[in-house]
Amino acid sequence: MNKQLIVKTFRNTFLVALYIFLISLMLSNSWRWFAGSDYVIRSFVTLLLFALSAAVVGGLMFGESIMLFLDNKKKESIRAAIYSICWLGVYTALGLLVLAISK
């Protein structure tokens, strides 16, 4: 088991979780900030934010795997992808636990 790879994937998926949290904070308050704005513009900006989020999260989640794959470290690349998905699963489980406790 490569501890350095585990730490890198933990860091990257932590940044994904933080990014998602910050975006959710922004979206939960957006109705106050943009209440009087045009619906078409709001929809356009929301879709732009969705596309940007896909790029940011995709890069953070699978960037390490892609770099390892391009360095011909295919087994480590697969491990990095699996570790990233597992870490995101841990964060999701923790989020669900927080929701269950706060109910």
Name its key features.
103 residues, mainly alpha, 3 helices, 0% strand, flat
Write a brief caption for the model.
The protein has 103 residues and is mostly helical.
Can you offer a commentary on this structure?
The chain is mainly α and 103 residues long. It has one domain. The protein is 89% helix and 0% strand. The chain is built from 3 helices and no strands. The protein has helices at residues 3-33, 39-70, 74-102. α1 crosses α3 and α2 crosses α3. The protein is flat and about 55 Å long. It starts with a helix and ends with a helix. The mean pLDDT is 92.
How are the elements arranged and paired?
Blueprint: H1 3-33, H2 39-70, H3 74-102
Order of helices and strands: HHH
Q: Which assembly state applies to the chains in this document?
A: single chain
* Strand residue percentage: under 5%
Percent helix: over 70%
What general outline do the C-alpha atoms trace? Answer: flat
Low-confidence parts, pLDDT < 50 over ≥5 residues?
none
Query: What's the overall average pLDDT, rounded?
Result: 92
Distance between the termini: 38 Å
Decide which structural class fits the backbone. Answer: mainly alpha
What's the number of structural domains?
1
Query: Count of helical segments?
Result: 3
Rounded to an integer in angstroms, the radius of gyration calculated over CA atoms is 17 Å
Major β-sheet profile = none
